Every structure is written in structure tokens, then in C-alpha cells.
Amino acid sequence: MTLGVVEGYEVHVAVAWQGFVWSAGADWLAATLAGGTTLHEWAAGHDRIASSAGRGTVHAVPAPTLGPDGRERWAVRHYRRGGSVARYLDDRYLAGGDSRPVRELKASVEARKRGVPTPAVMAGATYSAGIFYRADIATELIPDAKSLRHVLFGGSAGPIDAETALHLAGKVVRRLEEALVLHPDVNAGNILLRSHLGGTEAHVIDLDRCNVLSQEPGRPYHFMRARLERSLRRLAERHAVELSDGCWRALRDGFGASS
User: Which of 97, 122, 128, 155 is 20 to 30 A from 33 (CA-CA)?
Assistant: First the structure.
């Protein structure tokens, strides 16, 4: 776990595991992992409200300590492979270089500095498995947030209408572009929305595969826009829901709106 110095976090290393945590939670992390429990197993035993299924289960648990945004709950997930490689490796990653949790922490810290709305990473851990490792990550949980997928295709009306949701999703993608944070998996499940203080806000999650650039590239990069649109078209087809012209216009207006 080549974390280096990330302000506000501490690293803990043992033979079978390595982890990092927001400094206020150092004692909690050491005690939890030293007992032979993974972060995800710990979370499964403390999830008293809800868990959501995606690529694995995300547990919503009371926060052992408050983080930079003062959220009272954490979201804890276990990293799992996607795509065709998943059938061979499942939740294993080849050891060497930055681990998935470390990559997500570094990307999240830098993205937040650049104004990208994303939950703070609170803790992460890897567990040795021969030449591979398995890993967990914990972030602050945004209360009452729903994914863009749920808002558009969840089957019941909520406080956020489709055009507002899509406009905000487009603005989040534009914010990523302006911040030079390239997210290869911007989809309707990785954008969260919630009604708050009389308005609606959007956040992006799952930054472990992000590439954070130090300078403008030599050509425009709009692949995140195309990736999100593909995600929406697939979901619309799967759920037999037709997104209106107004919905697509709202999304593309969001793409064009500076933060």
C-alpha cells in the first residue's frame, strides 16, 4: 500500500493486511483489523438501517468517527471486478503499485480540492491473497441520497423530477471535465442526488479508476458524456422507459453549464 503522505490520514501495516484511516479513527481501525475482521465484515455486523446491492453489497453504518464533512454514517463496500474478468478473479486484484483503496483515496482528495462534489474517503484496507489482494473502502454516506438510476428508473415518483436530475448529472460531468478528473465509469449508478435545504444537489462516487490530470490535455475529452448517455440508453431499454426530448435536452444543457 504505497500511500505516501496524505494529509489527515494514518497508515497501519500488519503481515496479513494494510489499511489507512482518517486520523481520528486510528484506534478503531487498528482494533478492528487486528481482530481478524475485514472492514466489510465489520460493517455487515453494524448495518442496522439498509444495504444496497450493486456490484456486491454496500453497508450503511454508524460512523466510528466523524470525517471532514461531519457525516454520521459511512458507506462501506468490498471491491469486486466487473466485466469478463470477474468470472476468473471475482474480488482479487494483482498486488503491486497503488491498491484500489489508495487510488480512490488519492483521487478523492484531489478531486475534492478541485471542487468535485464527492463523499470523503474515511478508511480503506487490503488483505493479502498470495500474489493478489482483496480490498474494502469506507466513505462518508450522504444522507437520503438516491442514485440517478433509482430516480429515473426506480418505479415510483420522488421529490426530484427527471429533468432536474439529468441537468444536475450533466453539470457533475462538466465539473469533472473542468477539474481534469477523468472518471472512466460515469454511469447512472455512480451519480447520487438528494433534496437538501430547498434545492437539489448531485455527487459522483467510485473514483478508484479515475485519472487526475495535472494539466489540460492536447485535445477535448468528452468520453464521460458519452459514457453516461450510453448508461442511460441501456437502462431505459431494460426498464422499457422512454426518456423524453426534454430529458435529453436537460442533460446536454448540464454538460454545457460551467460550474
Answer: 97
